[in-house]
Structure of ethanolamine-phosphate cytidylyltransferase:
Amino acid sequence: MTTSEKRTRIWLDGCFDSGHFAHFNAVRQALTLVPSELPVHITVGVHSDAEILKNKGPPLFGERERYDVIRGCRWVDQVVEDVPYVTQLSTIDQYNIDFVVHGDDPVLDADGNDCYAFAKAAGRYVECKRTAGISTTSLIERILHPDKPRISSEEPLRELLRAFSQSATPNVPVLTGEKAVLPEEFPATRALTCGAWDCFGAGHVELLRRAREAGGGSLIVGVWDDATVEEVTGEKPLLAHLERALALVQCRHVDAVILHFPRTPSLSLLSSLGVSNVVTFGETYDADTSIKVLTVDCPPLQTVALLREKVHAQLQLFEDRQRRKGA
């Protein structure tokens, strides 16, 4: 390996169930957690459904969805599927890993053993700060009890949005509503799409990839607020407005995000953004002759209704899982 090819190789593993911002933030933190003058290479190992069911309980998202969601994270260089629940030195050695990173919350297997004991004993374990405010357990609670209070304050999410934006290369602008103005250095060829982006899953990652490819340039993504999502879908979104924005900013196919985006943007907004193409997968737009409206096929997307159906189909298993997690 030449000097130019050398990397500090970081390993993170886990369930990465329901693709929420705490998972993505762990990956983001790993970029700068280990002091190194070399570029950092992030490898993420993801457990199979069978491993999770054995050690934790049923996953909310299936393994293929979980593999593909984390593969769409802009800070991930490599994904390894179906890794052991207990991190083995033989596994990380296979990928030339220097350090294993995990949050500062304890992780035990079905027998009560520390999942990172081998990496710790080898002096190859580094902890990052666990991101508060969300977990797969809390999302299952939202599905089971949709009327319970959720977010107490938006400020931590806004701070995290700024950190996500600044950790992207180049930075991902996060703007707001009808008065959104992109920075001068933003690429001139611009496409736009918008939607709810709730229950962010592999279908959303693929949809964003298709939209960016069809648009032929940088992709600006508008995210509807909670009231608009409820108006369109008939129920509260699983993820709050800023939680959905965080899912977009971490996605490698997104170049800018606009909060509180209108369901049908005005021509003046599209013009002020310098958009040449609007990419749709269901919504319709009135556009002048200078703006092309392109349609892409929409892959299957996760929804609150589908996740609720899955939880209720295995209700006892999910309730047992929640009890073990102290929910």
Remarks:
- The two ends are 48 Å apart (CA to CA).
